[in-house]
């Protein structure tokens, strides 16, 4: 836990910021706060129906990444020292994205196994690269590595 400000206080600051942002955008949604572990808090934005929340996610989650960074910056500005890890999710986008990337990774692993040739994937965010690496950790027939420089960093899947 960060010194000076508790995880719960960080969550409250982030929640207040997101609620204000939603109100200014005329989006009716609920902001939930959940402690994932002793150093990580997740702020989740949900609405019923979730149709108007797409603007907060953006293409491939790019707007969501920016929203998370802005939220983290707001929380950091209220803290006398460092803050803990702050995640923002909208309409369970991250959960669905990780599942989709896991399915994609398994498909790529099968193609690499069949062809015997490595395959470089398109550049992706650190979170998406982690999802690919995690999805293939227990697959003994392939190995993964990240190459390139941000923001064009990508995963390579190779035969083991």
Note down, in words, how this protein is organized:
The chain has 2 domains: 7-91, 2-Layer Sandwich (GMP Synthetase, Chain A, domain 3), CATH 3.30.300.20; 96-159, R3H-like domain (Ribosomal Protein S8, Chain: A, domain 1, 2-Layer Sandwich), CATH 3.30.1370.50. It is elongated. With 160 residues, the chain is an alpha+beta fold. The protein has helices spanning 7-24, 54-57, 62-77, 93-115, 126-135; strands spanning 30-37, 40-46, 85-90, 119-120, 142-147, 154-159. The strands form 2 sheets. The protein has a 3-stranded mixed beta sheet. Strands 4-6-5 form a 3-stranded antiparallel beta sheet.
Name its key features.
elongated, 3-stranded mixed sheet, Ribosomal Protein S8, Chain: A, domain 1, 22% strand, GMP Synthetase, Chain A, domain 3, 160 residues, 44% helix, 2 domains, 3-stranded antiparallel sheet
CATH class of the largest domain: Alpha Beta
Radius of gyration using CA atoms only: 18 Å
Mean pLDDT: 93
Give the CA-CA distance, first to last residue.
Answer: 39 Å
How many distinct folded domains?
2
Overall CATH architecture of the largest domain:
2-Layer Sandwich
Tell me the overall shape. elongated
Major β-sheet profile: 3 strands, mixed
Which percent range describes the beta-strand content? 15-25%
CATH superfamily of the largest domain: K homology (KH) domain
CATH topology of the largest domain: GMP Synthetase, Chain A, domain 3
Total helices: the number is 5
